């Protein structure tokens, strides 16, 4: 699994093989069972994660008790926990058995001091992810429910088989019934 991390270290840093190995040796890779809650809405995050294998759902519960799914994190995606000194507005739950890099936010600065290029790599990955999220959000706002579904089929077709329909519908901003009707109209691959 750490070979995935090595790919990013090679792509975003100029660390030599020995330095890369030192970073890999310090990074914690943990396994989580399906249903594990990584962070509850209202709790203050103390870890950050990167998905090596599995699917993690990000959602919030509104005033009426409805769950609103805002993201699914799958292989090779960093999970944005936001500020580590403020309560989270989201819950993060493993939808599948998962293998995650689990970084301790309290020791993050120490790792960055020790391995200077690790901070640069993290920043570059966050910038790429943020740019992609901005594009997705702009397209989401401007598109119809059917167009959102078709876009999801192009960019993340694996979600169709990995995520319960009611959660996928919430993520796409529609009811499960609407999603069902759209799926019938759209020819699936």
TrEMBL record:
**Which spans are transmembrane here?**
none
Tell me what this protein is called. Crp/Fnr family transcriptional regulator
Q: Which InterPro entries match?
A: cNMP-bd_dom, cNMP-bd_dom_sf, RmlC-like_jellyroll
On the tree of life, the source organism's domain of life is: Bacteria
Task: Identify the residues that the record assigns to the Cyclic nucleotide-binding domain, covering every copy.
Answer: 11-57
Matching Pfam families:
cNMP_binding
Q: Which UniProt keywords apply?
A: Activator
């Amino acid at each position: 699994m750490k070979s995935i991390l090595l790919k990013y270290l090679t792509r975003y840093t100029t660390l030599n093989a020995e330095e890369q190995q030192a970073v890999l040796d310090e990074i914690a890779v943990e396994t989580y069972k399906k249903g594990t809650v990584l962070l509850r809405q209202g709790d203050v995050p103390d870890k950050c994660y990167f998905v090596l294998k599995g699917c993690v759902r990000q959602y919030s519960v509104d005033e009426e008790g409805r769950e609103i799914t805002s993201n699914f994190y799958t292989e090779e995606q960093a999970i944005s926990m936001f500020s580590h000194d403020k309560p989270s507005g989201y819950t993060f739950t493993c939808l599948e058995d998962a293998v995650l890099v689990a970084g301790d936010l309290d020791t993050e600065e120490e790792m960055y001091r020790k391995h200077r290029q690790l901070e640069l790599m993290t920043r570059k990955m966050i910038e790429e992810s943020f740019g992609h999220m901005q594009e997705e959000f702009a397209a989401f706002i401007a598109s119809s429910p059917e167009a959102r579904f078709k876009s999801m089929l192009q960019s993340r077709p694996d979600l169709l088989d990995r995520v319960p329909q009611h959660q996928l519908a919430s993520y796409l901003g529609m009811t499960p019934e609407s999603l069902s009707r759209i799926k019938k109209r759209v020819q699936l691959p």
